[in-house]
Design a protein that fits this description.
single chain, alpha+beta, Jelly Rolls, 4-stranded mixed sheet, 7 helices, 18% strand
Length: 309
Amino acid sequence: MRNPTLPKLTSQGLKLDTSAESFGLLRSSTDVIEDTGDLRERMAEDGYLYLPGYLDRDLVLRARKSVTERLAAEGLTAPGYSADEAVAHPDSGLKFKPDLAHDNEPLHRLLYSGPMMEFYERFLGGPVRHYDFTWMRAVAPGYGTQPHGDIVFMGRGTHDLYTAWTPLGDIDFQLGGLIILEGSHRLRSVREEYLARDVDEYCENLEGEEEYARTNQDTHGWRWDGSVSEDPVELREQLGGRWLTAEYRAGDLLTFDTHTIHASLDNRAERIRLSSDSRYQLASEPVDERWIGEAPVGHGPEGKRGRIC
């Protein structure tokens, strides 16, 4: 049976099967928002919590404004439109732009104070620290993000770590938001193989690999970009479950286990899709050193680590 309300949806340029057996909508957890035990059970079951309207919409829109004004000032939005419309300049080629978070007080207030921190302190049951690095997405029309799990990028500290995906504005199916592969956090084969890897590890016993790793400064590390697949259609067929998403609105919060496989729909609009990824854990737990400090090393040469292959 088809999902009658869904338009044609693509990811990585591939048409997704939107039948009821292969595609669905995220389950809202606003019904259990006041019960921490239920929230934890829901996270264990689903691998995510979708909380429509949890954040202050006005604060989200102020954070959005701080971002769109910077994009316009850099000439990355199309002339003839207001900055807030975020219509992409044809030559922008935007995808990942973390500098938009630097010295951005409205964005930091949204992500690292108030309801966001209160949620994680209650959910995790103690004082929380967030990563100092903020992943800012400014995605121009075109392909979205390939399927992946976050832990392969940030698994050197605690694995009791959670991502907050925060849409900075309304994101309909045309603009294309985040999609989650149902039940993927519980798949043993994925946990024992793909999710056990580290994108910044290299084989120190293989000639030439160490020098390559230390001199390559691509955004996602060296030879492996961290994706589990380049084909979200084939991946779903192999692993089972459904791709899940929603038409998001400013004020929504989607948080998920860093073992949960996710990707994004393609942006088939003319506007830039704006969202942020931020990470939270108990302050008492070990933290991945790549993502803390005034200038986190991230996936640069300092973040590489050798192992015997």
